[in-house]
Amino acid sequence: MPAYGRVLRNRLLPRWASRIALGIEPLEVEQWLKHLPVMKQKRNEIIYRFEELPTGGRVRITTTNSDALTAIHDFLRYQIEDHHTGDTKEISTDHLLPGVKDE
What we know:
- With 103 residues, this protein is of the alpha+beta class.
- It has one domain (22-103).
- The protein contains four helices and two strands, in the order αααββα.
- A two-stranded antiparallel ribbon has the order 1-2.
- A hairpin with a 2-residue loop joins β1 and β2 (56-63).
């Protein structure tokens, strides 16, 4: 049971706690879930680095694994749409590490 509590606290509540359960569409859950397996599987190949900025901060996510990169891009596009940030969903390749191709 402790594992379920951890999943509830770390995954489900941060994402869905502010919503009424009957108002959550199955497609929303499906889109949210589809990004997690690859990022979890490739977690040792993904680097998260916090960078302090004058206005707050950002987390830079880097990888040299093309599957992980695709999953990260898909996840971030979903987050941008879901949280209505107004950020662009276009991917620029000028930030890619040498040897990594964006697919």
